[in-house]
Amino acid sequence: MNRQQLAHILRAASRVVGDPDVLVLGSQSILGSYDEDELPPASTMSMEADIAFLDDPDRGKADLVEGAIGELSTFHSENGYYAEGVDVSTAILPIGWRDRVTTWSVSSSAPATPWFLEKHDLAVAKLMAGRPKDLEFVGSLLDLTMLNRSLLGERLADMEPSAHSVAIERARRWVDGAQTQGR
């Protein structure tokens, strides 16, 4: 997915629910920090964007997005990419992530104000998920020194350990192992 395609999804999602504050949670959130030409293929290969709204307590907006521009929708079949409506709580994020979100202009006439996870917060969310594709995503960004390993460690240390201590420890071991492997 590229920025133009993501901007299309963001405009459509905003129109569907009438809310300009669209948050990109998944791997496509990296497009808030880098243009697709700067990124490794592992970070832009997905044809879906995980879309959430900062104000969606009952997940109603996410469900509307899923139905209107989600997988197997007319939007998907016409464009080859789609949105997955998700809730903010889908991602396990470090403390303070909301204060670090980034944005870029979709266009002056667009109804959307896109918000993207800061790249280290995104990497933490991927490490917490721990799926092979997530580890590949973070590893590819580390390989190109697009992430600061020390800052990544600090963000992991900032996690609330209560419910996620096993995942936090797994992520810390992975980051330490990636360092010894030259990542």
Describe this structure as you would to a colleague.
With 183 residues, the protein is of the alpha/beta class. It folds into two domains: 3-116, no CATH class; 119-180, no CATH class. Helices cover 43% and strands 10% of the residues. Helix 4 (119-129) packs across helix 6 and helix 6 runs antiparallel to helix 7.
Chain-wise SSE layout:
Layout lengths: L2 H15 L3 E4 L23 E6 L6 H10 L4 H6 L2 E4 L27 E4 L2 H11 L2 H12 L5 H9 L7 H16 L3
Parallel strand pairs: 1-4, 2-3
Antiparallel strand pairs: 1-2
Helix pairs in contact: 1-2, 4-5, 4-6, 4-7, 6-7
Quickly describe the structure.
The chain is built from seven helices and four strands; from the N terminus they run αββααββαααα. It has 183 residues and is α/β, with parallel strands linked by helices. Helix 4 (119-129) packs across helix 7 and helix 6 (149-157) packs antiparallel against helix 7.
Tell me roughly what share of residues is in helical segments: 40-55%
Instruction: Find the count of extended strands (DSSP E, 2+ residues).
Output: 4
Largest beta sheet: what is the strand line-up? 3-2-1-4
* Biggest β-sheet strands, sense, barrel: 4 strands, mixed
**Mean pLDDT, as a whole number?**
90
Secondary-structure element string: HEEHHEEHHHH
- Structural class, by secondary structure, is alpha/beta
Rg, alpha carbons:
16 Å
> Which outline best applies?
globular
Q: Provide a count of the helices.
A: 7
Q: How many structural domains in the coordinates? A: 2
Distance between the termini: 25 Å
